[in-house]
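Translate sequence into structure tokens.
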Amino acid sequence: MRSGKFWLIGMVILLAVIAYAWIDGGREPLHEISVPVAVPGETR
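Result follows.
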């Protein structure tokens, strides 16, 4: 009984985290990363 209760609580917590990530997932739009990077040995 104790092991079953542990798994039930773990699954509830896991489902809560997944639900939060699903709801919160699209709040901030993705930004394009465009930063110049210095490459060693760059040819000119």
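Note: The CA atoms of residues 4 and 10 lie 10 Å apart.
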